[in-house]
Specification:
heterodimer; A: MetI-like fold; 2 domains; disordered N terminus; disordered C terminus; B: MetI-like fold; two-stranded antiparallel sheet
């Protein structure tokens, strides 16, 4: 078989001289260039929208915005922001579909419309999150701008007193004490269990894993009820910060154990084997290889557990009791915490108390945010350059 | 310098194979034993919670028998105790929340994994994690004071146009009144479900996104190379691959939604009626029942509350186990192990 269609193959159509640019028929040839043709333009980047495509997409939503205003404010009696957003969304989809159908096929229309729906749902979720944060900040900044809100407690302060008196110091410190005790209990036990499940293994580990996974289903209120029944009623202990910390621990322990287990399981086996092959003991393998490798994931697991523990109201509601004054001793009677402070103040129904609750919610949200950012910073994998530097320094 | 073979002496002619044993010795044994002890203690702690709940709830279940599941009222003073109403209420709130949370979670997960610019992805993932970390009491506040008036507006509209469908009906509400009473339309399971949906959405979203991100890149590129649009690629590759994750994530979130307490207590006005109408005021859930009644409970009532809590625990446990099985069975689950 040859590449040329010779005259001996009459069944093949011979390319006419015009097609081949005047070259001899049946021979491979280089294409000739037209010297008069304009310079080829560099292709605009792949994947990015061309200006007219961009205009169609953005323009559809712009047109829908105008239409939505027309429909909700002028034509139909649909007052209110929610209706405006809903009609903007629906009209935006219609406009996208129409403008796409003008140039594309049904496949293009489906593609564009689903892309719009998916993007809009993500935007909606983002909007909901932003509205929560902004709402709490706007409602709660008023008490918080008085410095005494975080430096004094509610001892001797009536629910209707002005914001210049009283604060949530007791609740902040209570929250921090409770979560510290809970971390001190759950972190070693949770990570230790995860190490047992992944590094030691065996039949018993499977039993532990099954039970731990089952207990992540425990609703937080039931964890609180458990400690309330056992610790407070059966053992006759008073309501205290320790009881609250125990309830939080019961709730957090399976969460942290399971999350750490998932993280440790994805540590590559080759790293473990390399360490063992170099003669390290199993403990040193875990301490120097497995845990450092899993550090970012472990930090995330811990922080999600902590965020859950510090913000969960229901276990605390049953076990800690709400004191209006600062209690530092975890076994020294009722100790307030931020979620509980918010809950009791909102339930009281008093406008000033609700304002205080917003202030406390603002503080709680800020606390969670700080936790979160610290965890992200800790979880960031250590960059290689400085560590190599350190190693060479130590070696030399 | 030459390499020499070691000289064989007469004594080493007969070599015994070294005994191979998997039993760890020395520090390894200490490590294994210590880890085992920690595992055992956690097993005891967590296991005892479940066993204790069952043990404490048993007298109630024995005493009231099947009536415990069919009686709607909770009147401990008259010796009438049942969880039919709260059980139904729990499911109404949970299912309504999931109806709202599921499409949003799926859309958000798809956006993050398929549509978002690569530079934005880590930030968006962090934001979803942050959303999961926002305390439930804050979502409760948000739902009760910011969202509820708008939700009530929506409920009035639904009642006006879809009131003929039984589950959308609002008994006692008059949507045609010039100023419809907020009391009939607010404080409903629907309003509570909005706050609960916000709480469980990030959880479902995180599971789905994780599974989507494990889709084999080659298959995605193959679909695109064959001329599929982005949506065509998602429909033919990403969604079938992530089906286990979608179902599993949804079920995990449902389990969470059923057990949610504080947002429900803050929003829903308690009522012991067998009610399937989410837009109507009033309702109750098991966790809200526990939160509102534990304080005044005598020991027998406490046993009844523990039994209710045990039932709730069993339900969430069943859902979670099923979810775990589905996630693990799917192709996507096989690769995480």
């Amino acid at each position: 078989m040859t590449l040329t269609a010779g005259p001996g193959r009459p069944d093949l159509p011979t390319p006419s001289p015009a097609d081949t640019g005047g070259a001899a028929p049946g021979l491979t040839h280089l294409p000739s260039y037209d010297d008069d043709a304009p310079q080829p333009r560099p292709r605009s980047s792949l994947g990015r929208l061309s200006p007219d495509e961009l205009f169609v997409r953005v323009g559809s939503w712009g047109a829908a915005l105008g239409l939505a205003w027309l429909v909700t404010q002028r034509l139909l009696p649909l007052a209110g922001l929610p209706w405006f957003l809903i009609s903007w969304f629906v009209l935006g989809l219609v406009m996208t579909a129409v403008t796409t159908a003008m140039t594309g096929t049904r496949v293009d229309v489906t593609d564009r419309v689903t892309a719009a729906v998916i993007t809009a749902s993500a935007a909606f979720v983002g909007l909901a999150l932003a509205s929560t944060v902004i709402y709490v900040a706007v409602k709660g900044y008023k008490p918080v701008i008085n410095l005494n809100f975080i430096t004094s407690d509610m001892a001797g302060v009536g629910p209707r007193d002005a914001f210049t008196a009283g604060g949530v110091k007791h609740a902040i410190i209570g929250s921090i004490i409770q979560i510290s005790i809970a971390i001190a209990i759950t972190l070693p036990l949770g990570v230790g269990t995860a190490i047992f499940m992944t590094e030691v293994g065996g039949k018993f580990a499977r039993v532990v894993r099954t039970v731990v996974e089952a207990m992540t289903a425990l609703p937080s209120i039931v964890a609180g009820l458990f400690i309330y029944t056992v610790w407070i009623l059966a053992l006759g202990q008073p309501r205290s910060g320790l009881a609250a910390a125990l309830a939080i621990s019961v709730m957090m322990l399976p969460i942290i154990a399971r999350a750490s287990d998932v993280v440790l399981r994805v540590v590559p086996g080759g790293l473990r084997e390399a360490s063992l092959a170099l003669g390290a003991s199993r403990w040193r393998t875990v301490w120097h290889v497995v845990l450092p490798t899993a550090r970012p994931g472990l930090a995330t697991a811990l922080i999600l557990g902590v965020a859950r523990g510090i913000g969960e109201t229901s276990p605390v509601l049953l076990t800690s009791g709400a004191a209006g004054f600062l209690v530092v001793n975890p076994v020294g009677g009722a100790m307030n915490s931020l979620p509980l402070f918010i809950y009791t103040n909102v339930r009281s129904g008093d406008p000033v108390a609700i304002q205080r609750a917003y202030g406390a919610a603002f503080v709680l949200l800020a606390l969670v945010l700080v936790f979160f950012i610290v965890a992200r910073l800790l979880a960031r994998p250590r960059s290689n350059a400085p560590s190599r530097l350190r190693r060479t320094k130590k070696d030399s | 310098m030459t390499t020499t073979l070691p000289e064989r002496t007469q004594a080493s002619d007969h070599v015994e194979p070294r005994e191979i044993s998997r039993t760890s010795t020395g520090s390894d044994a200490v490590f294994a034993g210590g880890a085992r002890a920690i595992g055992a203690s956690v097993l005891v702690i967590t296991g005892s919670v479940g066993i204790f709940l069952g043990y404490q709830g048993y007298p109630t279940l024995k005493r009231y028998g099947l009536d415990f599941f069919t009686e709607t009222q909770w009147l401990p003073d008259d010796d009438v105790i049942g969880i039919a109403a709260v059980l139904v209420g729990t499911f109404v709130v949970g299912v309504t929340a999931m109806v709202m949370a599921f499409p949003l979670a799926l859309g958000t997960a798809l956006y993050i994994s398929e549509y978002a610019p690569a530079r934005l992805k880590p930030t968006l993932i962090s934001l979803v994690d942050l959303m999961a970390a926002v305390p439930s009491v804050i979502y409760g506040l948000w739902g009760a004071l910011l969202i509820m008036p708008h939700a009530a507006d929506l409920a009035i509209w639904v009642d006006r146009y879809f009131g003929w469908i039984p589950i959308f009906d609002v008994v006692g509400g008059n949507p045609e009144a010039p100023v419809p009473t907020l009391a009939r339309y607010g404080f409903s399971s629907f309003c509570a479900a909005i706050a609960v949906a916000m709480m469980v959405l990030p959880m479902a979203c995180a599971v789905m996104r994780q599974v989507f991100s494990q889709t084999p890149q080659g298959e995605k590129e193959a679909a695109l190379a064959l001329g599929a649009t982005t949506w065509g690629m998602i429909r033919s590759v990403v969604l079938p691959f992530g089906r286990g994750g979608i179902i599993g994530g949804t079920m995990l979130a449902t389990g969470r939604a059923l057990g949610e307490t504080i947002a429900v207590v803050l929003i829903l006005s308690p009522e012991f009626l067998l009610k399937f109408r989410p837009f109507e005021q009033g309702g109750n859930t098991i966790s809200a029942l526990i939160a509102s009644r534990f304080n005044e409970a005598s020991s027998s009532q406490l046993s009844a509350l523990l039994a209710a809590g045990f039932v709730l625990f069993l339900i969430t446990l069943g859902i979670n186990t099923l979810a775990a099985i589905i996630v693990n069975r799917s192709r996507s689950g096989a690769e995480t192990d």
